[in-house]
Design goal:
The protein is of the alpha/beta class and about 650 residues long. About 40% of the residues lie in helices and about 15% in strands. The chain has a seven-stranded mixed β-sheet with strand order 7-6-8-9-11-10-15, sandwiched between helices. Helix 24 links the parallel strand 16 and strand 17. About 5% of the residues have low confidence. The structure holds thiamine diphosphate (TPP), 1-deoxy-D-xylulose-5-phosphate and magnesium ion (MG). The site of 1-deoxy-D-xylulose-5-phosphate has 10 residues, from loops.
């Protein structure tokens, strides 16, 4: 291939094997072009920018040295995988990232053989890589064969318990396994915790000086078992690592820290590891999140996630908002409640901004706890806080709370501890797709004895639910609300404490009653207007509670209507199932009630705009209208038009 720096090289790289024909100098150029292409693509699609920019050189080096897809390269979270996608045959579709029918914003097995393991939740990569390593050694038959197993995990993700469970197991099994710790001293927010402090200590002083010299002198200075007589290198590395590192104590060889933006360090180190490694090895790589794009490097979150933007100015193209986000209403309301009650404390698992708790942390720093990416600990820590007489609000995204489920059951619910679960991103979330959809929380919370479960129909209702949770000391309580803007309703001065287990009548009609749980209420009201124009006037009620159910309201509705339809933005097994159970128990079905339950379909819905996802889910106003016509035996919208 040409060796002139003015000849574009990325165009000639269609699969990683093409990198192997390039000189190291040319790989530098590929990295520069890859960075520019990543910035250009994300400027068009929006998405996760900073993490990918931080691993451009690492991505090039890994693909130049290892033999993917036979070697299994596993990106933790995989929000940093856009450069990897560009190098692995997906460049022609990179501007479809996070859009319906386009590339996922994360690695996905069904998308490419170069994505051996899907992710989006953090800290799974070492476990998965260890699984591949063991499968390789025991004659497993993965597509494309089984070679090296390489996990790339960030410093934020490394703090999670699951990563240490995997290290513990790997150190014991002693299989050849490569873990690359990509340390950029950032999570979404600045990382917190003792591990973060420890990692900083590992390279305090002059981090790369000796190692750079060593790497440039090729492989001769790498530690055992990478080279015979590697005494000097070993001493050097040990010295840099302030004695035996935590990773060595866990049974890993430790290599580093090395400059993750310097291909002259990365390439020889990875080549040597590939040639010589025997057991588990951890390579500690230092990088900069947002590297090489000034607006990202400057941003508070280092460009972690961005809307579409102007490449020259870095200015983001955000749609103007018409109403406050649910997240901000939650954050502000909790700050207000906390001003009246100094027992209120708040817990987030590495998502202070995402959950709105940044407001709380600013106002009450000593009462707000960012536990890092550690949802399991966050839940049990909240249980401890509650047992200690405080009023913890454990604010987590629905999808991440899944990771703390046993803790919700075992540590909170069984002990009837009054932990308040603020469940954000409940329902479909759009571009992040199926991994981030908050589909299951109603089902997994409402089946727990003693758990109160609420869903806000709008932002004023959310304020009431925060107040209700603050006042509820009898046991655990949860309230859910979606991603994005509220409806734009007037907000009260302060939230009212709701009566536990009581819904509200929204619109009195006849024949059919629609019982809504959560924010689909707006679509229900829209459908009701359309139906009224057709001569059918539904009754509409807002259940507010999935647990305990408002039995009086429900039984009243079924007594006075020929049909009942429930609707929620959640999977099968949630609110509608609880209503069905009640109706079955009360023998209501024996009387011929027509009952339907509108829930998310029993599929994982891929990324798309929220509107498109609701269409796929069949939870829009027109779907509700159709459902009403169907249950009443009236011609459907389509039939009528035909
Ligand atoms: C279990 C889980 N909790 C929270 C998140 C949200 N999240 C996505 S990326 C991220 C930060 C990851 O930091 P790090 O691993 O250091 O990667 P970096 O972005 O710095 O490259 C967080 C908290 C997640 N994906 N999974
Ligand atoms: C990768 C990840 O898990 C987060 O960055 C997530 O994409 C944030 O989602 P929100 O944009 O809804 O906060
Ligand atoms: Mg990081």
């Amino acid at each position: 291939m040409p060796d002139r720096p003015d000849t574009p090289l990325l165009d000639q790289v269609h699969v990683p094997a093409d990198l192997k024909r390039l000189s190291d100098a040319q790989l530098h150029q590929v990295a520069n072009e890859l960075r520019a292409e990543t910035i250009s693509a994300v400027s068009v699609t929006g998405g996760h920018l900073g993490a990918g920019l931080g691993v451009v050189e690492l991505t090039v080096a890994l693909h130049a040295v290892f033999d993917t897809p036979k070697d299994k390269l596993i990106w933790d979270v995989s929000h940093q995988s856009y450069p990897h996608k560009i190098l692995t045959g997906r460049r022609d579709r990179i501007r479809t990232l996070r859009q319906q029918g386009g590339l996922s914003g994360f690695t996905k097995r069904s998308e490419s053989p170069y994505d051996p393991f899907g992710a989006a939740h953090s800290s799974t990569s070492i476990s998965a890589a260890l699984g591949f390593a063991v499968a390789r050694d025991l004659g497993g038959t993965a597509e494309g064969g089984l070679g090296d197993a390489i996990a790339v995990i960030g410093d934020g993700s490394m703090s999670a318990g699951m990563a240490f469970e995997a290290m513990n197991n790997a150190g014991h099994l002693k299989k050849r396994l490569i873990v690359i710790l990509n340390d950029n001293e950032m999570s979404i927010a600045p990382p917190v915790g003792a591990l973060s402090t420890y990692l900083t200590r590992l390279y305090a002083g002059e981090p790369f000086q000796e190692f750079k010299a060593a790497a440039k002198g090729a492989v001769s200075l790498l530690p055992e078992p990478f080279r015979e007589g590697a005494k000097r290198a070993k001493e050097m590395l040990k010295g840099m690592a302030v004695g035996g590192t935590l990773f060595e104590e866990l049974g890993f060889s430790y290599l580093g820290p090395i400059d993750g933006h310097d291909l002259d360090q990365l390439l020889p180190v990875l080549r040597t590891v590939k040639a010589r490694a025997t057991g588990p090895i951890l390579i500690h790589v230092l990088t900069k999140k947002g590297k090489g794009y000034a607006p990202a490097e400057r941003a508070r979150d280092r460009g972690h996630a961005t809307a579409k933007f102007d490449v020259v100015t870095g200015e983001q193209k955000k749609a103007p908002s018409n109403a406050p986000s649910y997240t901000s209403v939650f954050g502000k309301t909790l700050v207000d409640e906390a001003a009246r009650d100094d027992r209120i404390v708040a817990v987030t698992a590495a998502m202070p901004d995402g959950t709105g708790l940044n407001l709380f942390a600013e106002r009450y720093p000593s009462r707000c706890f960012d536990v890092g990416i550690a949802e399991q600990h966050g839940v049990t820590f909240s249980a401890g806080l509650a047992a200690g007489g405080l009023k913890p609000f454990c604010a987590m995204y629905s999808t991440f709370l899944q990771r703390g489920y046993d803790q919700v059951v075992h540590d909170v619910a069984i002990q009837r501890l009054p932990v308040r679960f603020a469940i954000d991103r409940a329902g479909l979330v759009g571009a992040d797709g199926a991994t981030h959809a908050g589909s299951f929380d109603v089902a997994f919370m409402a089946n727990l004895p003693g758990m109160v479960v609420m869903a806000a129909a709008d932002e004023a209702e959310l304020m009431h639910m925060v107040a209700t949770a603050a006042a509820h000391d009898e046991g655990p309580i949860a309230f859910r609300y979606p991603r994005g803007e509220g409806v734009g309703v007037d907000l009260p001065e302060r939230g009212e404490v709701l009566q536990i287990g009581k819904g509200r009548m929204v619109r009195q009609g006849s024949r059919v009653a629609i019982l809504s749980f959560g924010t689909r209420l707006q679509e229900v009201l829209q459908a009701s207007e359309a139906l009224t124009a057709r001569g059918i006037s539904p009754t509409v009620a807002d259940a507010r509670f999935a647990k305990p159910l408002d039995e009086d309201l429900i039984l009243d509705l079924v007594r006075n209507h020929e049909a009942l339809i429930t609707i929620e933005e959640g999977a099968i097994g949630g609110f509608g199932s609880h209503v069905a159970q009640l109706l079955a128990e009360k023998g209501v079905f024996d009387t011929g009630l027509k009952f339907r339950s509108m829930v998310l379909p029993d599929t994982f819905i891929d990324q798309a705009s929220p509107e498109a996802m609701y269409e796929v889910a069949g939870l829009n106003a027109s779907d509700i209208e159709t459902k009403v016509l169907e249950v009443l035996g009236v011609a459907s919208i389509g039939e009528k038009r035909a």
